[in-house]
Each structure stands twice: as structure tokens, then as C-alpha cells.
Amino acid sequence: MSDLETRQLRYFVAVAEECHFGRAAARLGMAQPPLSRAIRDLERQLGVQLLVRTTRQVSLTPAGETLLADARTALDAVGAAEHRARSAGRPRPTLRLALKADYDGGLLPKILDAYDARPVELLLGGRGEQVPALREGRADVAILPEPHDDRGLDLEPLLSGPRLVALSATDPLAARTSLRRSDLAGRRLPDGRPAENGGADPAPPGAQRRDLSQIFNLVEVGGSVWFLPEWVARRFPRPHLAFLPVEDLDPVTLVVAWPAESRSPAVAEFVRVAKDVAGENPAERGVLATGARAVDRPA
Questions:
Q1: Pairing, β 153-161 against β 252-259
Q2: In the chain, how many domains are there?
């Protein structure tokens, strides 16, 4: 049996994720008949059935489920190798840092002042974009709230603190001193999710990404509520918003993260500097420094 090709894996992942050959073909920019033939050839090559096809839908067999998980990992690894090789081949390599604007806990300026191993290239993105950037090799290191899925990553905590709910100052709940999630029943987050779930459920498909000012504007007019770390609320006080603690809402931990396979001295130095900066005068930022663990290198 010949080795699998990345082209075959891309085709299979598209079909498996779309559960529809037509949509997968459109996503890949190809016609449907050659895609169908490629998947049948892949099944023959592996000697197993990967998909159950009916006139109404396409579903995965147990073998297909297994291949989907491994194919995603393999494609991520190939893409990461390409991005890292290009980055390392630059005349003056940079450290690519992924983060969401305003979600650095106030640490970023001090970290950049103290870090001099190499120039830092900031990759600013929306919520949830930092982990894919690390896994795909587009970023070397990231600062982000502790992710739900940290497979393939190493993490070091920097800061931890409560999450608050932002409400319009005219909301009847704004007169309270604290809330529970059940008090938010009937209210929605800016992306449409029910607020009483604490933002734990996944965002609906096609949800619009908004920047901080847009979110604040939606909350101010009473159309939404929003959960945010205390350090963000402290940096952006607004007279038409109320920020209240939610007793049964989990705290948020800000971490520095990097790919587990990284052996870059520049990444190791960045992690060390970030932890040193986070440990300096945490009370001035209104958040608590977490217990530190020694970092010799990203391992």
C-alpha cells in the first residue's frame, strides 16, 4: 500500500466536515465526480469503508471517525512545518506572538520592553484564533485565556482573576451588587447565545465577530450582555455600563502558550520574561498572580 498523500487527506476532511459531496467539492474548488472518485480510491487503498452514503446524507463510519481525527492532526503538522520553515529562513527571524487585542492583562508593553532575544511580530486576531495559529505554525507563542482544548500545547499561567458581566447601566440588574447566572435568563450575548449558560456553549455558525467597541455599544443600548475578565473591565470604564461579579461563573486564567514540540530558545526566553513580568506587583492590576513553575525551555 502506498503512503497517503496530503491531497487525499484534504479531500477526505472536507467531505467528512461538510457531510455532503457537493458542498465539499465547492469548498475545495473542484467538481463533484472527481472528488467522489478520490474518496472511493482512498477507501480501496485503506481497505475500509470511511463513509456511509445515502441519497439524503453522508456520515462517518468508525474508521472514518478515526481517520478524520488523525487527518486533521497530520494536515496541521504539514502546514505548521511549512510556516515554521519560512519563518526560520527569513534574513532576520522574528518571534510571532498571537493574541487578542486588549486581552493581555496589561502585560504586553512590559513584556516587549524586557524581551530582546529577537524582534516580535504581533498577530492580532479574534477570540479563539490563537490556538489554531499555534497549531498551524503561523505563531510561535501566544498570550490568551486558558483554552478549553490544549492538545499539543504547553502552557504557563500568568494571571488569574474573576470574570464579570457587563450590563447596560439602565438594566434593572445593574442595581445589584452581584449576580448568579440564572439571573441572566432571557438575556443574550452579542453572538446570540443565551447568557445564563455563561458563554460555555459554542458560538452559532456564522456568528459575526465584533471588536471591543462594537460589543460595548451593543451592551450599552441594552441589546446584549457580555462576560469579560476583570482586567479588561478595569482598563475600559464606561459610564453607561455596569460591571458586576457573577458568583457561579468560573474565573479566567491568562496563559502563555506554545507548541509542545517547540525547542526554540527564543520562545523559552519569551515565556521566562512573560512570567517574570506577570509576577511583578500584581495587586496594582487588580488581578492575582498564579503560582509560578520554573521554565527552562518549552518542552
A1: antiparallel
A2: 3
Q: What is the CATH number of the domain that holds 28?
A: 1.10.10.10
The amino acid occupying position 278 is: A
Task: Report the chain's terminal Cα–Cα distance, integer Å.
Answer: 35
Residue 61 exposed, middle or buried by CB count within 10 Å (0-12, 13-18, 19+): middle
Quick one: cell of 68? Answer: 478524520
129 and 265 together in one domain: yes
Map residue 297 onto helix, strand or coil.
coil
Cα angle 61, 78, 24; round to 5: 45
Q: 0.85 exceeded by the pTM?
A: no
**CATH at 127:** 3.40.190.10
Residues 157 and 170 in one domain: no
Q: Is 189 in contact with 225 (CB distance < 8 Å)?
A: yes
d(CA 87, CA 91): 9
Residue among 237, 254, 23 nearest 155 (CA) = 254
Cβ neighbours around 292 below 10 Å, total: 13
Distance (Å, rounded) from C-alpha 72 to C-alpha 74?
Answer: 5
Shared domain check, 139 and 105: yes
Q: Please give the grid coordinates belonging to residue 218.
A: 451593543
pLDDT category of residue 141 using cuts at 50, 70 and 90:
very high
CB 277 within 8 A of CB 111: yes
Structural domain including 231 reads 163-245
Distance CA 188, CA 107 (A): 31
pLDDT in tens, 14-63: 998 888 888 889 888 989 999 999 999 999 999 999 999 887 788 899 99
Which H or E run includes 278? helix 265-278
